[in-house]
Amino acid sequence: MGRRRALDQPALLGAAGSSSDDVAERLARTAADVDVVIDYLWGRPTQQAMPALLTARTDRSKALAWIQIGSMAGQDITLPSFLLRAANLNIMGSGQGSLTAAGIIAELPSLAAEIASGALAVDPLPMPLDQVEQAWNTPAAPGRRLVLTPSHR
Question: How far is 71 from 64, CA to CA, in rounded Å?
Fold first, then answer.
């Protein structure tokens, strides 16, 4: 139940009002043995969470993929060199430059099949492209993603 619980109850939930040191410590306690971290924050939270999580792992030789997706908390981190020697850490980005167009296209049929079967929930909030200025301030409920669609006139 340990790993499943860590995924079901992310360590960062309820972190509002906590210091980033507290969040990093909580992350290390609850999610130290995960296989993948999807990082939307980067910056100081990552700089504090990464060493806490890596040094708390039961088996540091087990691969951890740290996928950098966003930088809501900052553009840069300081990465101590010991982290690269102390654990099997693989840092990678997720964006158009991190994959080839052919690689993306090759995955589209299986992704479409997953969506069509209902195995992968998709709950878009469509908005016409001619309303792009309003889109910036349109709130989306948790789990929904705003998607700009062609404008119809």
Answer: 20
Quick one: which of 34, 41, 38 has its CA closest to 59? 34
Tell me, letter by letter, the H, E, C secondary structure of the chain. CHHHHHHHCCCCCCCCCCCHHHHHHHHHHHHCCCCEEEECCCHHHHHHHHHHHHHHCCCCCCCEEEEECCCCCCCCCCCCHHHHHHCCEEEEECCHHHCCHHHHHHHHHHHHHHHHHCCCCCCEEEEEHHHHHHHCCCCCCCCCEEEEECCCC
Q: How many CA atoms lie within 13 A of 85 on its CB side?
A: 3
Beta bridge partners of 126: 147
Of the candidate ranges 41-50, 52-61, 62-71, 126-135, the one whose mean pLDDT is the lowest: 126-135
Q: What are phi and psi of 65, to 5 degrees?
A: -95, 115
For 68-123, the pLDDT digits (tens) are: 998 888 999 999 999 999 999 999 998 778 888 888 899 899 989 988 898 887 78
Task: Tell me how far apart the alpha carbons of residues 100 and 107 are, in angstroms, rounded to a whole number.
Answer: 11
pTM of the model: 0.62
